[in-house]
Design brief:
Elements: H1 3-11, H2 23-50, H3 52-64, E1 84-85, H4 91-107, H5 109-120, H6 126-162, E2 173-174, H7 175-192, H8 195-204, H9 210-215, H10 217-231, H11 237-271, H12 305-309
Parallel strand pairs: 1-2
Organism: Streptacidiphilus fuscans
Transmembrane segments: 30-51, 99-119, 131-151, 181-208, 215-232, 238-260
Protein name: Sec-independent protein translocase protein TatC
Length: 322
């Protein structure tokens, strides 16, 4: 083992067999996880800085090819309508640095997500760890699916917003406002796709049953459309529908998963009522009386005639049968 590995092993606080440690060791463990995550984010941000030109071209291309509008920015081959501008001395640097950080945050997601899981996992039971890994594995593709849908609908949303510009006015999108609008759409779509997973988690924790989720479907569909109308930055019906329809489908998928899980739990409970108990919980004791047959009665020990003749006292036990 090298000196660097030995130092890292000494810096990390020791754990007990059940993952418990004092508060000070918890704080040192948190500091270690944060340092690893920040170092990974710094490295990936440098990588993002090196590839920021490609990322900017992929991001601004939809806005630069909106037809029917004209901006007061410089018209180039990459941006023929001149909609995108940067105002201020530091705005070009700020815009580029935000792009690099966004790329770095995405590239470093496996590292910081694992560090978060490694900090929380020692305090969980084996069953909770299994559920946690399953939810994390499902949350990542759901968020990425929502983010990809936001990227696909992003040009249409920009075109709808630009269509409200009067014909005798020029239009321009500042770089900072443009990037903030894109990040907001990605977060809204990505986090919205996590809501059905939250319902499944509540079902696995025994808080919400599948029957109740099935009874809520009318109100859930209505609430999803209202939420989409409020959360979508553009507020147009097209973008709202694009967000609401997948959320409704995911809601019914969550109802299906909860139904299968409740049926499996009911079947296991019928076979063994104590199957859901944690290791620290005691199982129920069967206090029902049972009748004893003649074969179940204790057999008394034979009396030694010699001892009886010698006058030694006989001892009786409560369980002796005379």
């Amino acid at each position: 083992m090298s000196d660097t590995q030995q130092r890292q092993k000494q810096q990390r606080p020791p754990k007990n067999d059940d993952g418990r440690m004092p508060l000070a060791d918890h704080l040192r463990e948190l500091r270690y996880r944060l340092i690893v995550s920040i170092l990974a984010l710094l490295v990936t941000t440098v990588i993002g800085w090196l590839m920021h030109d490609w990322a900017i071209n992929q991001l601004v291309s939809p806005a630069c090819h909106i037809t029917g509008v004209h901006g007061y920015g410089e018209k180039t081959a990459a941006c023929p309508n001149g909609l995108l501008v940067n105002n201020g001395v530091l705005s070009p640097l700020t815009f580029t640095f935000k792009i690099a950080m966004m790329i770095g945050f995405i590239l470093a997601s496996p590292v910081w997500s694992y560090q978060l899981w490694a900090f929380v996992a020692p305090g969980l039971y084996k069953k909770e760890k299994k559920y946690g890994l399953g939810f994390v594995a499902a949350a990542v593709p759901l968020f990425l699916g929502g983010a990809y849908l936001a990227y696909e609908i992003f040009p249409k949303a920009l075109q709808i917003l630009a269509s409200f510009n009067p014909a005798n006015f020029s239009l321009a999108f500042s770089g900072a406002e443009f990037l903030d609008f894109f990040i907001r759409m990605v977060l809204v779509f990505g986090l919205s796709f996590e809501v059905p997973l939250l319902l499944v988690m509540l079902n696995f924790l025994g808080i919400v049953s599948a029957a109740r989720l099935r009874g809520w479907w009318r109100g859930a569909v209505f609430g999803i459309f209202v939420f989409s109308a409020i959360a979508v930055p553009t507020g147009d019906p097209v973008t709202m529908t694009v967000l609401a329809v997948p959320m409704c489908l995911l809601y019914f998928a969550a109802v299906g998963v909860a139904t299968l899980r409740d049926k499996a739990v009911a079947r296991r409970y019928a076979e063994n009522p104590d199957h859901q108990l944690d290791p620290d919980q005691a199982s129920d004791i069967d206090l029902r009386p049972s009748s004893l047959g003649a074969d179940d009665l204790p057999i008394p020990e034979p009396v030694n005639a010699t001892e009886l003749a010698a006058g030694e006292p006989m001892t009786y036990h409560p369980d002796d049968v005379t």
